[in-house]
User: Which sequence fits this backbone?
């Protein structure tokens, strides 16, 4: 749906208007200039529907989504509110006309869109992704990421001396006013509904990251196949925390992880990649989707890939219209 900007110019946060259902709109004009107020009840509804779809997904068992044996999957890296890449991705994926296609999304929040007061806008990206989930519940899948967990617990991830979690919350407060608490709580529920892994019968395994080298041997691999409790999320010691915060695993470490989860090939994000991706041995590919060199990987679900074949499939967002 095209944006109706109320004649106030096109300098406001236009992503909202690009939402395909046109559900986010500037609600009123104040002292001659456009004031963006999002509709809390609509956003809460979108987030709740998406959270429920995450939980009731027929492909989900505990914390793992297992994709069908046919069809295809597009794996992405961290998005971090990179709107242009996200828009290109959604357009290219054309889920409506490709019901066999699955899209995996993670680390959508905490980007570069700040206002002059230090409020950050990425709740909008999250709502857009939730809306996509609501429209294509069997095809859109999320993975829990460390920024999600940090936002839920209000932990400090600092960027240039500022807490990105506080900046995110400030954006919600700015746009929802007295409904901000409700929206924040609903965002947390939505994020907590994300599974930890997406896998397929052809040996593909996707998660936000992998445990660190020091943790990979003693990692609690049951975390994918059981209900979670508070201590699973605990800083440093919890397996959820270790999985999504882990960095720097070696090719040898990734082989150990792959053997434990019976995967042929693992794709994660989390570790920034200036050139879009890094090959970490025979079984582990790291990709990024949050900048101009960002990539995604479209893969078939009925082919057992080698790393070489997967690397051949890596697609840069810059090549998309
Ligand atoms: Mn991350």
Assistant:
């Amino acid at each position: 749906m095209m944006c109706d900007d109320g004649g106030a110019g096109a300098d406001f946060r236009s992503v909202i208007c690009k939402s395909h259902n046109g559900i986010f709109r500037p609600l009123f004009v104040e002292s001659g200039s456009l004031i963006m107020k999002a509709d809390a009840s609509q956003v809460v509804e979108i987030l709740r529907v998406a959270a429920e779809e995450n939980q009731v997904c027929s492909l989900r068992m505990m914390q793992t989504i297992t994709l069908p044996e046919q069809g295809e999957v597009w794996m992405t890296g961290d998005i971090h509110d990179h709107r242009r890449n996200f828009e290109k991705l959604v357009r290219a994926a054309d889920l409506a006309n490709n019901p066999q296609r699955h899209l995996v999304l993670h680390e959508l929040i905490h980007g570069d869109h700040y206002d002059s007061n230090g409020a950050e806008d990425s709740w909008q990206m999250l709502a857009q992704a939730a809306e996509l989930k609501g429209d294509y519940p069997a095809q859109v899948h999320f993975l829990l990421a460390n920024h999600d967990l940090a936002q839920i617990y209000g932990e400090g991830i600092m960027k240039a001396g500022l807490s990105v979690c506080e900046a995110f919350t400030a954006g919600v407060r700015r746009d929802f006013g007295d409904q901000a608490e409700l929206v924040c709580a609903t965002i947390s529920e939505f994020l907590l509904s994300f599974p930890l892994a997406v896998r397929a019968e052809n040996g593909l395994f996707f998660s936000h990251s992998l445990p660190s080298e020091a943790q990979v041997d003693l990692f609690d691999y049951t975390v994918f196949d059981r209900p979670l409790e508070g201590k699973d999320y605990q800083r440093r010691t919890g397996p959820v925390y270790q999985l999504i915060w882990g960095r720097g695993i070696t090719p040898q470490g990734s082989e150990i992880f792959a053997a434990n989860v019976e995967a042929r090939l693992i794709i994660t994000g989390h570790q920034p990649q200036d050139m879009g991706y890094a090959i970490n041995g025979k079984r582990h590919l790291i990709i990024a989707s949050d900048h101009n060199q960002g990539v995604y990987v479209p893969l078939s679900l009925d082919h057992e890939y080698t790393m070489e074949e997967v690397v051949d499939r890596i697609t840069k967002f810059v090549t998309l219209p």
Q: What stands out?
A: Residues 1-23, 26-35 have pLDDT under 50 and may be disordered.
